[in-house]
From TrEMBL:
It comes from the Bacteria. Keywords: 2Fe-2S, 4Fe-4S, Iron, Iron-sulfur, Metal-binding, Oxidoreductase, Repeat. Residues 8-64 form the 4Fe-4S Mo/W bis-MGD-type domain. This is Formate dehydrogenase subunit alpha. GO terms for cellular component: membrane; oxidoreductase complex. The lineage of its organism: Bacteria, Pseudomonadati, Pseudomonadota, Alphaproteobacteria, Sphingomonadales. GO terms for molecular function: 2 iron, 2 sulfur cluster binding; 4 iron, 4 sulfur cluster binding; formate dehydrogenase (NAD+) activity; metal ion binding; molybdopterin cofactor binding; NADH dehydrogenase activity. The chain holds residues 231 to 924 of 948 of the full protein. Belongs to the complex I 75 kDa subunit family. In the C-terminal section; belongs to the prokaryotic molybdopterin-containing oxidoreductase family.
Length: 694
């Protein structure tokens, strides 16, 4: 922990790690950051923080930062440091050459959920206005794209329904596929506070997360389901709600389509979907499913919080809709203490999605085929826009290996580490003629890059992040960019080299354009954010003070939509060669692939990823605590040390993925969500055996 010296100034800004969005005072002495102090007036954190936001900012001034642009004609050549002018001109020339040679659709880009709203808005604008296509995607593809699909389909908008304070009004808290005390610690603490006050807890998770049993908190029901069976279990809970007539008929008749409810009710009430019938699939005792369903439906205000254990499945979108069905059926939507709440992983994944980072949507989730929305952007940007959705990240990689996609601009994402089936990602990148990586460090993806544009940290720029409760908060520059340019300036340089003629002098001007073009943001301006601290969208004429709770008087789409979600087993099967199921998650001290936290003192708290394995499975393989084991799947193999624990059930193993040596995504498969292509990270059939180490 580095906390030295006496500060001479302080700047209030927002944490760049998780979707809680804690506010801090960055205390500075000259250009040196002395410490980060959680800010008491921060509306998301109210003076609290975790060990990441508080202590893990050392990466910003780490010696591994790349500060000068670099180019190379081929990835077999060494990098050559060049001026910003040369790097920008080379980038623009290459994209124009590729489009002239291979066509308009042969290039695209990826926005970063680590960057600000303004920066992601500019990347998608550059692609739509400058490349003339919709080939833009974002890391939400591999995390919360099913949330976007599922909540938009059922409720009409792709966002959580509540603010964090709402949890203090919940009588029943259902946590499914999330581990808030590790992955969203400050919100996890608030949840525990409510539980200590007497709220009841239901946890649906293959693993015994801390919330299941920790000092002063114990779950009423833990349903340790077999990975990949979320839809079957949620449907069985719905079966209980419907067959025992625990649903809220008045709410459904007033707020939802009654005929659709009846179709759904007929479906879930079939005997094949009872808790008893699905026990062989889920492994969960029917009595526990029935008790949990009764508690959720009748225990008062019931709120659902979920994470990537819901979305990163072949039925991720179906699971989100099954959750929404349950909430609507029991009337747990549209007031404090209830709702459906995705816990967003990255600091600005909500914002990146809001800003039009998907290949089918402009900012504010309007489809590119919507003539009115397109006309608005065409008028503002002075170009004709494509009405066809563009390529998703996996489609870009497929098209690259097919020879039709040749140029990719990647802002702040290490897709070689973070996306599934590493070999396929590598093959796609290797087949491209121009890969541009804009990042802080020479990440794994940069091994396949032709241009490296050094990025800036959250401490070096102005902008906004939007957290998991739709709260838009200011990011404020506390020091000059070490690389000479904030990320938004770099995108503007590339755009202008492409001939787009942008002249933003400050990110506030980008936000003014976002507000002018995005109906849910029309009331969002920097002067208001500075005066009020934050705003939760929608913030517009209909909701001048912003919107802490959504769908109060009606759903955004009008009537809430019940969707029949039939359980379809994943194609990833266990068998004699691969008898165990691997699932993955995070630990408190680290963040995602660890590019930042591994370059801080936090590494001392968790120096390596370990494989959690049940004592029975370990004994059967002769594995003892701390032994090196090989972890093999149909896709690949890696090696790590064993941690023997009853947190996982027999037949299930678990690891974190914060260290590149673990190479968890060498193991994961190509299977993905049927609606969004979100990878099925949470279910991989594996075998574990003793190993001599890496
Ligand atoms: Fe940062 Fe999230 Fe920790 Fe808050 S809870 S300090 S936003 S990592």
């Amino acid at each position: 922990v580095v906390e030295t010296g006496t500060p001479d100034r302080a700047v209030v800004t927002t944490c760049a790690y998780c979707g809680v969005g804690c506010t801090f005072r960055a205390e500075m002495r000259g250009e040196e950051l002395v410490r980060m102090v959680p800010w008491k007036d921060g509306k998301a954190n109210r003076g609290h923080s975790c060990v990441k936001g508080r202590f893990a900012w050392g990466y910003a001034q780490h010696q591994d930062r790349i500060l000068n642009p670099m180019i190379r004609a081929s990835v077999t050549e060494p990098w050559r440091e060049v001026s910003w002018d040369e790097a920008i001109a080379y980038t623009a020339n290459e994209f124009r050459r590729i489009q002239a040679q291979y066509g308009r659709l042969s290039v695209g880009g990826i926005t970063s959920s680590r960057c600000t709203n303004e920066e992601t808005f500019l990347v998608q604008k550059m692609i739509r206005q400058g490349f003339g296509n919709n080939n833009v995607d974002t890391c939400a593809r591999v995390c919360h794209s099913p949330t976007g699909y599922g909540l938009k389909t059922t409720f009409g908008t792709s966002a959580g329904t509540q603010d964090f304070d709402s949890v203090m009004h919940a009588d029943v808290i259902l946590v499914i596929g999330a581990n808030p005390t590790d992955a969203h610690p400050v919100f996890g603490s608030r949840m525990k506070k409510r539980l200590r006050q007497g709220a009841k807890l239901i946890v649906i998770d293959p693993r015994q997360i801390d919330l299941v049993k920790s000092p002063h908190v114990e779950a009423e029901h833990h349903l340790p389901l077999r990975p990949g069976t979320n839809v079957a279990l949620l449907t069985a809970m719905a079966h209980v709600v419907v067959t025992e007539k625990l649903y809220d008929e008045a709410f459904i008749r007033e707020r939802c389509d009654w005929d659709e409810f009846q179709d759904w009710a007929d479906f879930v009430s079939e005997a094949a979907r009872s808790p008893e019938a699905i026990e062989p699939l889920t492994g969960v005792r029917p009595a526990d499913v029935r008790a949990a369903a009764r508690l959720y439906a009748t225990g008062g205000n019931a709120a659902i919080y979920y994470g990537l254990g819901v979305t990163e499945h072949s039925q991720g979108s179906s699971t989100v809709m099954a959750i929404a069905n349950l909430a609507m059926a029991t009337g747990n939507i549209g007031r404090e203490g209830v709702g459906v709440n995705p816990l967003r992983g990255q600091n600005n994944v909500q914002g990146a999605c809001d800003m039009g980072s998907f290949p089918h949507e402009f900012s504010g989730y309007r489809h590119v085929s919507d003539d009115g929305a397109r006309a608005m952007f065409e008028s503002a940007w002075g170009v004709k826009l494509d009405h066809e959705p563009g390529l998703r990240i996996p489609n870009m990689l497929d098209a690259a290996t097919d020879g039709t996609f040749k140029g990719l601009f990647i802002q702040g994402e290490d897709i070689l580490q973070s996306d599934p089936n590493t070999r396929h990602v590598a093959a796609g990148l290797a087949a491209m003629e121009c890969v541009v990586v804009q990042d802080l460090f020479l990440n794994e993806t940069a091994n396949y890059a032709h241009v490296f544009l050094p990025g800036s940290t959250f401490l070096e720029k102005d902008g906004t992040f939007t957290n998991a409760e739709r709260r838009i908060q200011r990011v404020r520059k506390v020091m000059a960019p070490l690389n000479g340019h904030a990320d938004w300036e770099i995108v503007q340089l590339v755009a202008n080299a492409l001939g787009l003629g942008w002249d933003y002098a400050h990110p506030s001007e980008i936000m003014d354009e976002i507000a002018a073009l995005t109906p849910t943001f029309t009331g969002v301006h920097y002067d208001r954010l500075d005066a009020e601290g934050s705003l939760q969208w929608p913030a517009n004429d209909a909701a001048p003070d912003g919107t802490p709770t959504m769908h109060i008087d009606g759903f955004v789409r009008g009537k809430g939509k019940f969707v029949v979600t039939d359980y379809v087993p994943t194609d990833e099967k266990t068998g004699p060669r691969f008898p165990l199921l691997l699932t993955t998650g995070r630990i408190l001290s680290h963040y995602n692939v660890g590019a930042q936290t591994r370059r801080t003192a936090n590494t001392a708290w968790h120096p390596e990823d370990r494989l959690e394995i049940h004592p029975n499975d370990a004994e059967n393989r002769g594995v003892k605590e701390g032994d090196w084991v090989s972890l093999r799947s149909r896709a690949g193999e890696t090696t790590l040390r064993a941690l023997i624990t009853e947190r996982v059930a027999p037949g299930v193993v678990y690891t974190t993925f914060h260290h590149p040596d673990t190479q968890a995504n060498v193991i994961t498969t190509d299977y993905s969500d049927w609606a969004t292509n979100c990878p099925e990270y949470k279910v991989t059939a594996v075998q574990v055996g003793l190993s001599n180490g890496p």
